[in-house]
UniProtKB/TrEMBL annotation:
Pfam families for the chain: HIRAN
Keyword Ribonucleoprotein: no
Protein name: HIRAN domain protein
The species this protein was found in: Thermoanaerobacter thermohydrosulfuricus WC1
GO MF annotation terms: hydrolase activity, acting on acid anhydrides, in phosphorus-containing anhydrides; nucleic acid binding; zinc ion binding
Keywords assigned by UniProt, alphabetized: Hydrolase, Metal-binding
HIRAN domain: residues covered: 1-107
Length: 121
């Protein structure tokens, strides 16, 4: 199957593109309450929240990418994409068409250990 690429724009209004790295998985959610665009798709990154939108206008969709309108009917309320490239102003991500994407997050907690001091008297 041919890969579908999307552009993530509007990042400057949130955290900038610095939070998006190649390999990062983002969640795409239909923005049903957007007053300006009936096919708006917001892009969120856990645990930060919204980081941008899928580009949907002639001026913001780069050549070779799909607009939000072209992928809007390909999923229900949400889908996922994996970031492939990041520039200063936008990111290019590959749309993941699977109905279910299993994401494993690994983390390690650092415990602060009390140091034992010998009292020299």
């Amino acid at each position: 199957m041919k890969s579908i690429y999307i552009a993530i724009t509007g990042c400057q209004y949130y955290y900038g593109t610095k939070v998006l790295k190649p390999g990062t998985i983002v969640r795409l959610e239909k923005d049903l309450y957007n007053d300006y665009d009936d096919e708006a798709i917001s892009v969120t990154l856990a645990p930060l929240g919204q980081v941008g939108y899928v580009a949907n206008s002639v001026g913001t969709v780069p050549r070779g990418c799909y607009s939000a309108g072209r992928i809007y009917d390909r999923f229900g309320s949400h889908a996922f994409a994996v970031v492939k490239f990041v520039t200063k102003d936008l990111a290019i991500a590959e749309f993941l068409e699977e109905d279910f994407v299993k994401v494993t997050i690994k983390f390690r907690l650092k415990e602060k250990r009390k140091k034992k001091y010998k009292n020299k008297t």
